C-alpha cells in the first residue's frame, strides 16, 4: 500500500489503530494545523511591541476560551486526529506516513522554524523526539503488546536542514522476550542524516 492509493488513513499508526469511525473532527484538524503554523511564525518573527502585545491579548483570550473545555486523556482529541499531519499532536514533528507493513514504516517529515536549534540546524532534541515517536509506534503496532521506551540512542551524522522534505524510516530489528529493538534512519535525497536505535520494553499487566 502507498499514500498514492488514497488509503492514507490506513497508516495512522498511533497505538496502531485507526481512528474510530465518526470521530473525525475537521475543525480540530484545522485548529491543530493553525497551532503548528503559529509555533513556526512565533519562532521566526520579531514583531513591534504593539503587535506583540496584541498577539499576547489574542492568545490569552483563546487560552481562556479553551479552558472551559478541558477533558481527561481518554477524551482528548489532540494526538488522535489521524487525518491531520502528525495526528494533531503539535509537539511531535509533522510526520506523514507513506507505507507501513506492521514491522516497518516509511514517512516524510519537514521541520519548520519551531524546531530550530541554532545556526540553521534542527534541534537535536526534536530529532530524538521524532525517533521516539515513530519507533514507538512501530513497537506498538497493531496486535502487539503495549511497550514503552526504555532506551533511545541517536547518532547525528550531518546537520539536519530546516524546511526540507526528509525521509524517515523505522523497522523492528529483533524481539527478545519483552524487549523490542527498533531501528530508524533519517535521510535527505543525498545523505544519511541521523540514525537511531530504540529499546521498547513490553509492559507487564501492572504497568499498563
Ligand atoms: C504509540 C506510542 C507512540 C509514542 C511512543 C512514545 C514512547 C515513549 O516515549 S514511552 C515514555 C517514555 N518511557 C517511559 O516512561 C518508560 C519508563 N521506564 C519504565 O517504565 C520501565 O523502566 C520499563 C517498563 C521500560 C522497564 O521496567 P521493567 O518492566 O521493570 O523492566 P526490567 O525487568 O527492568 O527490564 C526488562 C528487560 O529490559 C532491559 N532494560 C530495561 N531498561 C533498559 C535500558 N534502559 N537499557 C537497556 N536495557 C534495559 C533489562 O535489562 C531487561 O532485560 P533482560 O530481560 O534481558 O534481563
Automatic annotation (TrEMBL):
Family per record: Belongs to the THEM4/THEM5 thioesterase family.
Cited InterPro entries: HotDog_dom_sf (IPR029069), THEM4/THEM5_acyl-CoA_thioest (IPR052365), Thioestr_dom (IPR006683)
A single Gene Ontology CC term: cytoplasm
A biological process from GO: fatty acid metabolic process
Residues in the signal sequence: none
Catalysis performed (reactions): (9Z)-octadecenoyl-CoA + H2O = (9Z)-octadecenoate + CoA + H(+); decanoyl-CoA + H2O = decanoate + CoA + H(+); hexadecanoyl-CoA + H2O = hexadecanoate + CoA + H(+); tetradecanoyl-CoA + H2O = tetradecanoate + CoA + H(+)
Subcellular location: Cell projection, Ruffle membrane; Cytoplasm; Membrane
Domain of life: Bacteria
Enzyme Commission code: 3.1.2.2
The keyword Membrane is annotated on this UniProt entry: yes
Keyword field: Apoptosis, Cell membrane, Cell projection, Cytoplasm, Fatty acid metabolism, Hydrolase, Lipid metabolism, Membrane, Transit peptide
Pfam families linked to this entry: 4HBT
CDD domains: PaaI_thioesterase
Membrane topology per record: Peripheral membrane protein
Protein name per its UniProtKB record: Acyl-coenzyme A thioesterase THEM4
Span of domain Thioesterase: 119-190
GO function term, MF aspect, one: hydrolase activity
Principal subcellular localization: membrane
Enzyme class label: hydrolase
